[in-house]
Amino acid sequence: MSPIPQINNLTGLSKDYINEFAGRVSFIRLPHKRERVHEFGPIRKYREYFHPNQYPSVLSVIDHPHVRKLDEIVDEMNLKLEQRDYLGVLELYSHVEILIYGRKLQ
């Protein structure tokens, strides 16, 4: 069992969770690779990414407002991926960055 890595003191969320999105976003930003984004499968929610069997401390943040909002965004992003609404996915990704980092990255 491990502690959740890279907790951002400002948001209480792990900066490591951005990795769940990074590969997909990179492919979406490259038009010639965009369709390959579906090879990743659906985006996992915070609790799925930090499974309680390995990261028991995730259970203490499941009801955190930021985690609930991230879960809502993940549901929306997965739907937009199914619909191939890639611009919509990128728009939602900016909200993920804000929630995880507490600000938008440049």
Could you characterize what this model shows?
The protein is globular, with a radius of gyration of 14 Å. The chain has one domain. The mean pLDDT is 90. With 106 residues, it is mainly α. The protein starts with 18 loop residues before the first helix and ends in a 5-residue tail after the last helix. It contains 4 helices and no strands.
List keywords for this structure.
106 residues, 46% helix, 4 helices, mainly alpha, globular
Q: What class would the helix/strand composition place it in?
A: mainly alpha
Q: Helix and strand string, N-terminal first?
A: HHHH
End-to-end distance: 34 Å
Instruction: Work out the helix count.
Output: 4
Shape: globular
Average pLDDT, rounded to a whole number, is 90
Strand content: under 5%
Radius of gyration: 14 Å
Major β-sheet profile? none
Weakly predicted, low-confidence segments: none
In total, the number of strands is 0
Helical content (DSSP H or I, runs of 4+): 40-55%
Supply the number of structural domains: 1
Summarize the structure.
The protein has 106 residues and is an all-alpha fold. It has helices spanning 19-29, 46-49, 65-82, 86-101.
Helix-strand layout with pairing:
Blueprint lengths: L18 H11 L16 H4 L15 H18 L3 H16 L5
